[in-house]
Amino acid sequence: MAGATGAATSTSKSTPESVTHAEIVPMVWLSCGLAALAGLLFGMDIGVISGALPFIKQDFNLSSAMEGWIVSSMMVGAAIGALSAGSISKSMGRKRALLVSSLLFIVGAIICVVTPGPTLLWIGRIVLGLAVGVASFTAPLYLSEVTPERIRGTTISFYQLMVTIGILAAFVSNLLFSYIESWRWMFGVLVIPAVLLFFGALAVPNSPRWLAAKDRIDEARNVLSRLRGTSEEVEYEMGEIQEAIEQESESQGYALFKHNPNFRRSVFLGIALQLVQQFTGMNVIMYYAPEIFKMSGFDGTSASLWATVITGLTNVLATFIAIAFIDRWGRKPILYAGFAIMAVTMALLSFILTFGASTALLQYGALAMVLLFVVGFAMSAGPLIWTLCAEIQPIRGRDFGIGASTGANWIGNFCIGFFFPVMIAGIGGPWTFGILAAVNALFIVFTLCLVPETKGISLEKIEKNLLSGKALNKIGV
Ligand code: BGC
Question: What is the reported pLDDT for 6?
Answer without folding.
Answer: 31
